[in-house]
Amino acid sequence: MSTVVMNASVSVDGFIADENDDPGPLFEWLVSGDVPLDDSGVLKVSQASYDHIRPYWDQVGVTIAGRHVFDITDGWDGTPPSGIDHVVVVTHRGRPEGWDPEAPFHFVDGIEAAVDRARELAGDRIVEFAAGDVGGQALVAGLVDEVRMDVAPVVFGSGKRYFGSVRAQHLLEDPDVVIEGNRVLHLRYRVRR
């Protein structure tokens, strides 16, 4: 069965964007190196970041995101980000009107349904939850196996929280990955069961 990972770039004070959904300098690390991360020619990271991120991206088969993220990215123009095969969108509104039914996007109502559909699509590849409200709901529901954070050296003070509206304590294991890149610290924690 596939591993379920919650992942995002995050400020040192725990935010994935400001109040207006602007990630600001959180993604500077993706353009602060000299090693191409993908074929776009835009993303260039340090060698340490590349050695950590590229193998992870290559293992991700499905990303699960909420409707809010889908809407603010304009559905990635119908092409899943970072070479991912499928996106599962958690929404109570269903597929947008006029959306191409052949695009590899799947619209489901609820976190558990999203994980079920994503695991079916991913096979033995990683299922990735976008951080924020949907990822936080998955953590609370006990559906997340590990948490990955790309911590950027910035303090937002307020904004969209990495764990969304999670208000209760959830224990993680000690970090089993700690990698310093340019403008980023990559961390990975297993979720304590």
UniProtKB/TrEMBL annotation:
Matches recorded under Pfam families: RibD_C (PF01872)
InterPro entries assigned: DHFR-like_dom_sf (IPR024072), RibDG_C (IPR002734)
BP GO annotations: riboflavin biosynthetic process
Molecular function in Gene Ontology: 5-amino-6-(5-phosphoribosylamino)uracil reductase activity
Domain Bacterial bifunctional deaminase-reductase C-terminal: 3-170
Region forming the signal peptide: none
SUPFAM superfamilies with a match to the protein in the record: Dihydrofolate reductase-like
Gene3D superfamilies the UniProt entry points to: Dihydrofolate Reductase, subunit A (3.40.430.10)
Name this protein carries in UniProt: Dihydrofolate reductase
Source species: Agromyces intestinalis
